[in-house]
Design a protein that fits this description.
2 copies of one chain form a homodimer. Chain A is an alpha/beta fold. Chain A is built from 11 helices and 5 strands; from the N terminus they run αβαβααβαααβαααβα. Chain A has one domain: P-loop containing nucleotide triphosphate hydrolases (Rossmann fold, 3-Layer(aba) Sandwich), CATH 3.40.50.300. In chain A, strands 2-3-1-4-5 form a 5-stranded parallel beta sheet, sandwiched between helices. Chains A and B meet through helix 2, strand 2, helix 8 and helix 9 of A and helix 2, strand 2, helix 8 and helix 9 of B.
Chain lengths: ~270, ~270
């Protein structure tokens, strides 16, 4: 899955990256889903050790255009993992109190503690995406944020956080299909916001903004992965694989007991 | 399952409540586990509606003696539920900053927001349990907390929170078995703290303290359930059933879209 990682300093051409790609995977959807299921069991076990060992911290950032599948990833990749060790932080439109602080203030408050895995559903990257596309701050303000974000993430990494960032890459046609599917199903109408269509009209501006994000903030300590996401099962497979590998690489183990338990009797 | 609910003002005799009870349930462990699995699917669907409708808030309080099964409940009852809508708040020994505030300060910060379900793994009840048993505060201080807690929970309930409190009732023999099982399995040694044995020696004091909690703080707006918990599967069955019923009683539905979507075209 390493080929989806954005090498630091590399040029990114999103239009040349196929959102339908399924890499070297020869199987179909059914086989893909089965593999995601197996990885989910592995993730469950690895998370238990992460939680028990109280050493590492894991931060997962999910970014995508509307309908890109952030909620779907949370459901499919993390379902079954003990909710005690997984926290989801969803970043909505900032509140007045949040706006009265710097944009990383609310983010810093919810980074993972030792033993924790935290998923960001949207993130501080909105401050160089929606903020840029809608001119909510002038270019000199959002322009300096790439370096600020790299420094912030470096702090987290140096203090023991494993950071994995995923851009769920769908194309404009796929978004059309997904929005139409929501319109066609009254049970999904609550998910449909007319504002989503206005954002869709800004697709190219968003792609330009995402390109800058991917080129400027994929670092050795906090890499971005561009995940082909038109196929939901393959999207889940990529993320599960990257996550399981990263957790295995931490080589965590259940902690030893400091006390000699050999002569303990329970009365 | 209503028989496990503590009626407000009722006397509680924990020694007369059988922790091995399996009520009217005629099935065995296997059938019980299957039923818990079905309830888990129901809970998953109900939680999605809770999250979508953004109206109700659900607070689940878990209290038990060591090895009582709080973590087990979180894993079995809530696994499979979308982690985006479920938060676990674990209350450990208070930090200096927390001790510098009133004991409900840290609790209030993590109560569920609209659409959220929050599980308290231990809770503000420790402030009338461990605090009392270990004389960490004088009786006049912890003694007034029952009324304070009732008032606090009434506030939460009146502001839209459904509160369900579960005391996982095991007996001293069952705890002995579970502690011995941890001692016998090196993979579980990390979970074993010698301090647990000191707490065990104070069993009767804890039962007296729990009795007061159950008698004084089971209210119409925040009832306690005494859950027979020697059999893990039956414990999970009781909690799943109570929770699913409470969520159904909220009669939540997916929200309507305020906009007329009938003529929307995605371009």
């Amino acid at each position: 899955m390493d080929k989806y990682r954005v090498k630091p300093g590399a040029k990114v051409r999103l239009s040349r990256i196929d959102p339908n790609d399924k890499g070297d995977f020869k199987g179909d959807k059914k086989e893909g889903r089965e593999l995601v299921g197996k990885l989910n069991k592995e993730l469950e076990a690895l998370q238990e050790v992460l939680y028990a060992s109280q050493k590492a911290k894991v931060l997962i950032v999910l970014q995508a255009m509307d309908t890109g599948g952030k909620d779907g990833v949370i459901r499919s990749v993390f379902e079954g993992v003990n909710p005690e060790g997984v926290t989801v932080a969803a970043f909505k439109v900032p509140s007045p109190a949040e706006l009265a602080h710097d944009y990383l203030w609310r983010v810093h408050q919810v980074v993972p503690a030792k033993g924790q895995m935290t998923i960001f559903n949207r993130s501080h990257y909105e401050d160089v995406l929606v903020v840029r596309v809608h001119n909510l701050a002038p270019p000199e303000v959002w322009g300096r944020r790439f370096e600020q974000i790299n420094a912030f993430e470096k702090l987290l990494a140096e203090e023991g956080t494993t950071i994995l960032k995923f851009f769920l890459h769908i194309d404009k046609d796929e978004q059309k299909k997904r929005l139409e599917a929501r319109l066609a199903d009254p049970a999904k109408h609550w998910k449909f916001a007319l504002g989503d269509l206005k954002e869709r009209a800004l697709w190219d501006d968003y792609m330009a903004a995402y390109t800058d994000v991917l080129e400027k903030t994929s670092t050795p300590w906090a890499p971005w992965y561009i995940v082909p996401a038109n196929r939901k099962w393959y999207r889940d497979l990529v993320i599960s694989s990257v996550l399981v590998k990263a957790l295995k690489d931490l080589k965590l183990s259940y902690p030893e007991n400091k006390d000699d338990l050999s002569k303990v009797v329970v009365v």
